[in-house]
Amino acid sequence: MGNLTLALDSAWKILLAGLLLGAGLPAVFAVGIRSMAYGAGGDAEAHATGTPGPRPHPAGRIGAYACFAVVLLAVALGITFVVATGFGKELSFEHIYPTLTGKD
Amino acid sequence: MILTLVVITALGFDFTNGFHDTANAMATSIATGALRPKVAVLLSAVLNLIGAFLSIEVALTVTNAVVNIQNSDGAPRPELLADGGTALLVIVLTGVVGGILWNLLTWLLGLPSSSSHALFGGLIGATVAGLGWAGVNWTGDGSKLDGVLGKVVLPALMSPLIAGVVAAAGTWLIYRITVGVAARFTDNGFRWGQIGSASLVSLAHGTNDAQKTMGVITLALIAAGEWSDTEDIPLWVRVSCALAIALGTYLGGWRIIRTLGKGLVEIAPPQGFAAESAAATVILTSSHLGFALSTTQVATGSILGSGVGRPGATVRWAVAGRMVTAWLITLPAAGLTGALMWFGADLIGGVAGAAAVFVLMLAAAAVMYRLSRRSPVDHQNVNDEWQDAREPARAAG
Q1: Integer distance in angstroms from the first to the last C-alpha of chain A?
Q2: Structural domain boundaries, residue A73
Q3: With contact defined as beta carbons under 8 Å apart, do B20 and B256 qualify?
Q4: B160 — contact with chain A (CB < 8 Å)?
Q5: Distance in angstroms (rounded) separating the CA atoms of residues B56 and B179
Q6: How far is B166 from chain A (nearest CA, A)?
Q7: How many domains, chain A?
Q8: Is the separation of the CB atoms in B275 and B267 below 8 Å?
């Protein structure tokens, strides 16, 4: 294969991973923020001036923490990935949960 | 003697690499006020330092991507060692000088050009001058992404686009999702996200970029007969490279931070968060796939994308255009400088030639530093309102 084919081959994978993680995780984070605002109620949410604003919803907070946990987990995996690659290991998702394996 | 010059020059390049690239990770956090400027560069410097130590993989074959001065195991080509390694040392020295000079010039102009391209460009130029066109690995052998085309040109064309698309998608999603949430509430939340994603970019930068200098210095040591292990890098090289890149990062290339943070797009925290997340993901995925890309171009593409993805945001395409121009000419310009330096060193010959190149570099660096003092940019005015004053003048001229 030529360089161009190889480059395009990598490029679409990077784009896919990028959209999934690089745009998807921020979206999850945004859902968390939105949920947090729903949980906090009052001035955190847009409402007509002069009115007290929506009342707080405890469920919103729980949802928010769940979203943030997902993002944090992903970031932790990201760091593990950087460190592992540096030490000649690879992050493997063979067993669904991530494990570290030696590079072939 | 020449070896000492090569080591100092390579560390100097590492240092410019640091301050040239602070902006990639921290420009958006500084622009949105998520971190105070001094805190941002300190955080980035520390993470670069850690990153430089985290990666223990030997980066000795770094020059193999673009030039043929090493064997595939990292040892220098034997035919270049006939004269005690001087031929190879001069090529490396003049190549790195070419990279430094281009980095300093683009910094003076506040342009975020790629440090890797500057280094590769300088090495290519010096190699062409020293060994002829055949000394350069233009396309590889076709079995994997290799050579100037596969390791530099194609990734340079594709990576900013990919990063831009990802950042635009992320920004658009974030703004869609948070409609109806008070701006002050979202901004606070996204500032935290921004700090996290920017830290990831810094860490990844440290693991990638410090390696290149370590590889170059070790190559020079082997050429001079001071080191023989192609499986390992001397500890002092590792420590000094890590410190050089961290110090450079801490110094902060404020001129470039300003261009990226304020010049391209007026960045709000959600955009900054989307941009850095996109940059971090693209950099990490690419390095996993062996797709060699420039952190700078990815970061710039992401920031542009975050401007495109936010409804109603203004993107200063004139500034973006200047950047793209700088990217296009980085490789040839650094190459030309490297080649000229090699001819200069060759003309004078031997140690004197190498010393002359070194002195010339110091002089040029001093001149550019003096010029930069005419319109200083530092942590105090880095976030000032962006003036387009220079743009019309350029367009008219």
Answers
A1: 23
A2: 3-102
A3: yes
A4: no
A5: 45
A6: 5
A7: 1
A8: yes
C-alpha–C-alpha distance, residues B42 and B254, integer Å: 13
Distance of CA B186 to CAs A21, B166, B247, B276, Å?
Answer: 21, 21, 34, 17
Within an 8 Å CB–CB cutoff, is residue B140 touching chain A? yes
Residue B211 belongs to a domain? yes
- Predicted pLDDT of residue B351: 86
Q: What is the number of structural domains in chain B?
A: 1
Task: Calculate ∠ Cα B302-B24-B136, nearest 5°.
Answer: 95
Tokens coding B338 = 């490297």
Per DSSP, the residues of B138-157 read: SSTTSSSS-HIIIIIIHHHH
A43 CB neighbour count, 10 Å cutoff: 14
**Mean pLDDT computed over every residue of chain B:** 86
Contact residues on chain A for B140, CB-CB shorter than 8 A: 3
Beta strands (DSSP E) in chain B are none
pLDDT in tens, B220-257: 888 888 888 877 888 899 899 999 999 999 988 899 99
Partners of B147 on chain A (C-beta within 8 Å) are: 3
In chain B, what residues touch A26 (CB-CB under 8 Å)? 170, 173-174, 193, 273-274, 277
B49/A contact by beta carbon, under 8 A: no
The pLDDT tens digits of the residues spanning B312-364 come to 888 899 988 988 888 888 889 999 999 999 999 989 888 888 888 899 999 99
The widest CA-to-CA distance across chain A, in whole angstroms, is 67
Inside any domain, residue B396: no
Residue tagged 């005419």 (tokens): B374
How many beta carbons lie within 10 A of that of residue B77, not counting itself? 15
- Lowest-confidence segment of A34-48, A63-77, B26-40, B54-68 by average pLDDT: B54-68
Provide ipTM, 2 decimals.
0.81
Q: Residue A8: what residue type?
A: L
DSSP of A2-29: -HHHHHHHHHHHHHHHIIIIIIHHHHHH
Residue B395 covered by a domain: no
DSSP letters for B46-73: HHHHHHHHH--S--TTGGGGTB-SB-TT
Check CB contact under 8 Å for B173 and A26: yes
Mean pLDDT of B33-42: 92
Instruction: Flag whether residue A30 sits within 8 Å of chain B, measured between CB atoms.
Output: yes
- Give the structural domain span for B106: 2-389
DSSP alpha helices (H): ranges in B252-316? Answer: 254-258, 269-289, 295-309
- The pLDDT assigned to B148 comes to 79
Q: Among B124, B102, B126, B119, which residue's Cα sits nearest to residue B14?
A: B119
